[in-house]
Structures are given as C-alpha cells and as structure tokens.
Write a structure and sequence with these properties.
By secondary structure, this protein is mainly alpha-helical. The chain has helices at 3-32, 44-59, 63-66, 70-77, 86-93, 98-101, 105-161. Helix 1 (3-32) packs antiparallel against helix 7 and helix 2 (44-59) packs across helix 5 (86-93).
Length: 169
C-alpha cells in the first residue's frame, strides 16, 4: 500500500466514522422529538400496566443496567415517552425478574405481552423515520465513494502516462 492509498484509507475511515456519528445523532434527535403514539393502543390497560411497572423498574435500576444515558433516564423518569426512550423502557422490563418488580409471574407474563404490543407500535412509527435518515446518509456515502473512485482513476491514469526510460547499453 503506497502513501496515497494509505491516506485515502485513513480519509475514508474518518469520513465514515463521522458520517455514522451524524447518522446516529440525527436518528436520536428525530425519534426524541416524536412522542410515543399511545393513542394507537386499543386497550388503555396495556399502556397503564407497562408504565406503572416501568416506574417501579426505574426506581430499582442503574443507567448501566438499562444501557442508557442520563438524558434517556430523565425522559423516562419525567414520563416523556418518545420514540427514542420508549424501547429502553420496554427492553429493560425483560431484564428484571417478577420479584424485582413486585409482581407475580402471571402478571409478569402479561406485562411482557403488553410490552410487545407497545413495541409493535414503536416499530411501525420509528422504522420510517430511521429509513428516511439512513437513505439520506447512504446517498452521502455513495457520493463520497464515487468521488474516491474518480480520484483513484485519475491517479492511475497519471501513473500509466509516466514514461519509462529505455535502458541504454
């Protein structure tokens, strides 16, 4: 690998790392700005059951156990249920045993079923947002790669045009 190829590889790696960071940031921003659509849940007891037990969970959990940051924890603690924070609550419920939540095994199985219902609604609304943002960033990635190929072709043509001196004997 020559120096130009090495620089190109490093540039590509940095570009894609930065692009990934921006992609994740924009997804988080858009999902955080979208309230969870509880109005689509047919049975109001589903919402009430999950949120009631979710509050118990939040009182007995660390950020590390839920794998969340302070902002998401505060959203959940302040009942700001949005498309970004809600999956952490729903997934977190599965990490607890019924006795940790103060419920029976039957109540726990019902809770997990209710969480699944909310998860389906979440997926229905979050997937299109994520896909739209991912398409935008995929287009940027494609443009970058195409530009890299153009530059590589130019360098290759320049290399091919170099005159190789004939040896004189």
């Amino acid at each position: 690998m020559n120096k130009n190829e090495l620089n190109t590889a490093v540039d590509q790696q940095q570009f894609f790392q930065e692009l990934d960071k921006k992609l994740k940031g924009e997804i988080r921003e858009k999902l955080s700005a979208t309230s969870f659509p509880f109005d689509e849940i047919a049975d109001p007891l589903v919402e009430a059951n999950v949120l009631k037990i979710g509050k118990v969970m939040l009182q007995n959990v660390s950020l590390n156990r839920l794998k969340i940051d302070v902002d998401v924890f505060e959203d959940l603690a302040n009942e700001n249920y949005n498309l970004f924070s809600m999956p952490f609550l729903l997934n977190g419920l599965q990490d607890f045993a019924p006795n940790e939540l103060g419920i029976t095994p039957i109540e726990y199985s019902n809770l997990i079923r209710d969480a699944y219902v909310l998860g389906v609604v979440h997926g229905k609304h979050s997937a299109p947002i994520k896909e739209e943002i991912q398409k935008k960033y995929q287009k940027k990635a494609d443009e970058f790669q195409n530009q890299q190929l153009v530059e590589q072709n130019k360098l290759q043509k320049q290399e091919n045009k170099k005159v190789i001196p004939l040896s004189r004997k």
